[in-house]
Amino acid sequence: MAILCENADVVTLDQQTPVLHGQQILIDQGIIADIGNRVRMSNSAVAERVDCSGKIVMPGLINAHSHLTEILQRSFRDNVRMEIWKGYRAHTEEMADLTAAEIGIAAELACAEMLKSGVTAVVDHFSTRPGLSVPKMKAIIRAFEKTGIRGVLAPSLSDQDFLRILTVESRNTKTSRTNIDLSWQKQVLEVLEYLRTSSRTSDLVLGPSSPFNCSDFLLREIVRFAASTIWEFTRTYLKRGFSAGVPVNSTGGV
Question: Of 56, 52, 51, which Cα lies nearest the Cα of 19?
């Protein structure tokens, strides 16, 4: 069954014709099948007609950097220095100790809020305490699927605390790394397998945290991990000024 939108002012993002007036939009089985002054009707019967007179139809917005579960901490720590903000966030999450189910509900709320505002795609830089887990990452993906938003899960990866480096390790130049945790690799592989079998609109990228929270070793290991698997290319994206993102999906991209 199809939906026909009529009398729409369509924002095209084309510099030559940025706005098309009085347009019809045919949506067939959730896909935009045609746009024009008079669309070509598909084989599906039109089940609903929507009068868009006086309304604007535009491509969905993309939120390229979000922390979905932080919707639960909104206004908890506004206008404070980063070191204070970081401590407040850590203590709040440690005390709350959210379950996978609670994380999923928070993510659904955040996704619903974005959809209401015209955001139809989101990258969630997901981090939680005491740490990443497969059930919690799956909960985020299920929230994407349940709300219908196109979502990219970017598990946040880090292996150092910049505050500790500034205050403690700066006074001890002999500090060495003896406990290197690479458990995220197995978790990522498990979540990727879940995505392959259960999702058509969600994806996953590797999401190094801010550069000062990532050692050179971790950044190299992320690149090595991606290159050593079947995934074929990498992409960089901005995060807090500069950070690398490595898509590791099986479909060729985000």
Answer: 56
Extended strands (E) in 178-239: 202-208, 235-236
Q: Which residue has the tokens 């992320």?
A: 222
What tokens appear for 5 in the block?
């939108």
Domains of the chain: residue spans and CATH:
2-57 (2.30.40.10), 61-247 (3.20.20.140)
| pLDDT-above-90 percentage for the chain | 49
What is the residue type of 128?
T
pTM: 0.78
| Cis peptide preceding 208, ω within 30 of 0 | no
Q: Using the predicted structure, report yes or no on whether residue 89 has a pLDDT greater than 90.
A: no
Closest CA to 115 of 165, 54, 66, 176: 66
Please give the Cα distance from 65 to 152 (Å, whole number). 10
User: Which DSSP state fits 69?
Assistant: G
**Phi, psi at 142, each rounded to 5°:** -65, -35
pLDDT of residue 236: 35
**Average pLDDT of the chain?**
82
Residue 203 identity: D
- Determine the Cα–Cα distance for residues 26 and 212; give it in Å rounded to an integer: 48
